[in-house]
Amino acid sequence: MPTTEFAVVTEGLTKHFGDLVAVDHVDLEIPTGTVAALLGPNGAGKTTMVRMLATLARPTSGSGRVCGHDIVEEPDAVRAALALTGQFAALEPNLTPRENLILIARLRGHGRQAATRIVDELVDRFDIGEFAGTPIKSVSGGQRRRADLAASLVTEPQLLVLDEPTTGLDPRSRQVVWSTVRELVARGVTVVLTTQYLEEADQLADRVVVMDHGRAVATGTPGQLKAQIGDHRVDVVATDEAGFAHLAQVLEARFRCSFDPERRTVSIPAPGEAADLLAVTQVVATIGVSVEEVALRRPTLDDTFLALTGEPTEGNPMDELRMEVPA
């Protein structure tokens, strides 16, 4: 198959549903052999973007190319180049996972022996063996999701589009999906995924596109997006409201602070990182107020997402370095 510098290119891609503008003049360039994550609150336009790239929805205006093919003028070529796993399993419910996979492999042109070999590899990769002989309608949501992901890889695509691929999966199954994505990218496959898990984007994505109200409001590497919201900070969390009030008064006199009374937290910018953590810890130790923690917080994609869209996402623990406060 032909290769191009960019697996996905869109210019002013727009989709209207009546008066609703679901996607609003989005420009994208996704290099071949990379992972791009689309992040955004519900209704931001992520799934509509995916559907247009997969030729399942026709753009109202603008243009898009997938693996060098126009998504409007060459839909068959686009479909031949990509595989899509949507939010809902596209499997025959009365067939077992193995039967579904064999059926898809045969429909994709593989002979009986080749289809069996491919399916055996996928059953092993996605840990499907324990329910491979159970009808899809009788397996759990997470098991159905794993079978659906396996189905999208019966034939290795140039572009793999994953719409919230690990929703409903347990942590072990999520790691299997992450490992599979990394293996595919190492072989030159491009991956576009939407996700509600910020950790997932941070772990996998070379490029993150933050969408809000149909627009791409920020694009960059995870590190570049985190840098937009500033430096590290030291958070001091008081045990009770009275302690918070006293902490706030004392710390404000020594440092530039921000306050979150609801969480009883005083935050201090920490451009010096560990040095600032030590300085704040020493001051807190002299106050005599009971605190739950003093922690150095690093900016996360969750912070970035909230700053750019004003919407919280599925929570992920912040990367942090804690320091014990001397008694």
β-strand amount: 25-35%
What's the total number of strands?
15
Query: Order of helices and strands, N to C?
Result: EEEHEEHEHHHEHEHEEHEHEEHEHE
Average pLDDT metric? 86
- Tell me the quaternary state: single chain
Rough shape? elongated
**Computed structural class:** alpha/beta
Number of helices: 11
What is the helix fraction of residues, given as a range? 25-40%
Tell me the strand order in the biggest sheet: 6-7-8-3-9-10
Low-confidence stretches: 313-327
What Rg is obtained from the alpha carbons, in whole angstroms?
A: 24 Å
The major pleated sheet works out as: 6 strands, mixed
Termini separation: 66 Å
Structural write-up:
By secondary structure, the chain is an alpha/beta fold. The chain has eleven helices and 15 strands. The longest helix is centred in the middle third of the chain and has 16 residues, at 171-186. It is elongated and about 75 Å long. The termini are far apart.
Provide tags for this entry:
alpha/beta, 327 residues, elongated, 11 helices, 6-stranded mixed beta sheet, 15 strands, disordered C terminus
